[in-house]
Amino acid sequence: MLRTILFSAIIGIVFFTAEYFGFGAILPKEKWFILAFFFTLSILQHRILSFGFQDDNDKFVQFYLASAVIKLILCMVFVAVFVYLQVNEVVSFIITFFALYLFYTCFEVVGMYRNLRRDLKP
Questions:
Q1: Would you say 67 and 51 are in contact if contact means Cβ atoms under 8 Å apart?
Q2: I need a labelling partner for 55 at 20 to 30 A (CA). Which of 25, 30, 90, 106 fits?
Q3: What Rg do the C-alpha atoms of the chain give, in angstroms?
Q4: CA–CA separation, 63 vs 50, rounded Å?
Q5: Dihedral through CA 10, CA 24, CA 17, CA 8, nearest 10?
Q6: What transmembrane ranges does the database entry give (predicted)?
Q7: Cα–Cα distance measured from residue 89 to residue 114, given in angstroms and rounded to the nearest whole number
Q8: Can you say whether residue 27 is alpha, beta or left, with left for phi > 0 and alpha for psi between -120 and 50 degrees?
Q9: Where are the domains of the chain?
Q10: Is the CB of residue 83 less than 8 Å from the CB of residue 91?
């Protein structure tokens, strides 16, 4: 979970730095909401997967698939709500959203791969 906090802080620093150097017009105004959403979603997914690791690793696949479905549904709801609320820069919002989606997904897969590799060693 500490890695998730650090990863989100690094992305927050990148957002802040982009605003400071004048690249803030590229990013949507809702970038902090998107970052908070993915941080919360990542923490939720971490908690769900930790339940899968508790008793035995046989349940891990079920918990991982459940967390992936929950993540997908929550992402669709998040985008739908913001598009319904008529975000000013829809294209910029969607590009930023899916860029962060890819960053967080890659981050979670790498973290999960490290945990699984560590647990599978004899």
A1: no
A2: 106
A3: 16
A4: 9
A5: -10
A6: 5-26, 32-49, 61-85, 91-113
A7: 38
A8: beta
A9: 2-120
A10: no
Q: Give the C-alpha distances (Å, rounded to integers) separating 70 from 20, 41, 74.
A: 35, 9, 6
Q: Which helix (H) or strand (E) holds 118?
A: helix 90-120
Compute φ and ψ for 33, nearest 5 degrees. -65, -40
How far apart CA 33 and CA 47 sit, in angstroms, is 21
Q: How far apart are CA 35 and CA 96, in angstroms?
A: 10
Q: What is d(CA 82, CA 99) in angstroms, rounded to the nearest whole number?
A: 16
Predicted TM-score (pTM) of the model is 0.83
